[in-house]
Amino acid sequence: MSEPEPFDPKDLEQITEIEDQNDRKQILGILSGTGYNINQIIGAGIFQSPGNIWWLVQSPGIALIFWAIGGVVSLFGSLVYIELGIRTYRSGIGEQIYIDEAFYCVNNLGHIFSLVAIFAIFPAGIIADSYTSAKYLLYAIEGNSYSSNDNKIILPAVTISILGIITVYHVFNNRLPVYINQTLALIKLFALLIISIVGLVKLITNDNNWKSIFDTYSPNLGDYTSAMIKILFAYGGVLKKSKILVARK
């Protein structure tokens, strides 16, 4: 048998050139990518979680500290995801690639994770967001008279309608979702800006808000743990930015 030819680095350069030529045209720029990240970070959790977290810890001061800790943890996690995305860019982006590299001795572990994510994790999150959107929409229409018990048929119907509309415009057009995401990102930023300004004004004009902010009626460790999980879930959108590095037509 003839000996195999030695590896030539130029062969790798040729393969890379072919891959670059076959790359499809990207549809997300810096501005649209920023809007996508804003929509992921400012999700339903950031509007739903604060009240639940305060109810768990029963202390404004402790709740603020938990939010700060969760933000720092999520920041480091986001930086790790960016590094992983850059490192495995040619092979793909996402948890499947990261798991395959980290646990290479276990066959198809990344594919198993992807299977669970596609059929359980991601659909559950989408349904939860659609349900929350439907509930807020009905509350905006009905006002204080809104009651989830009185909308056992209307609420699921609106939720399914929202899912259907989102699915349709994603199937038939790949530019329209970008424009919609940009618009929603601006609306979310504007809404949070108003909420923040109103909160700061109320905080300044009412000195009672500063008194006994660390008093708590819930010293239960389980409540604190649950609050931190909800905070990390609300911050979870920061881990999605690496997945748009290969957004293509």
Number of domains: 1
Gyration radius, rounded: 23 Å
Distance between the termini: 47 Å
Instruction: State which percent range the strand residues make up.
Output: under 5%
Task: Specify the helix fraction band.
Answer: 55-70%
Low-confidence stretches: 7-22
What string gives the helices and strands in order?
Answer: HHHHHHHHH
What about the largest sheet? none
Q: Count the beta strands.
A: 0
GO molecular function: L-amino acid transmembrane transporter activity
Keywords: Membrane, Transmembrane, Transmembrane helix
InterPro entries: AminoAcid_Transporter (IPR050598)
Protein name: 1588_t:CDS:1
Throw out a few tags for this protein:
249 residues, mainly alpha, 69% helix, 0% strand, globular
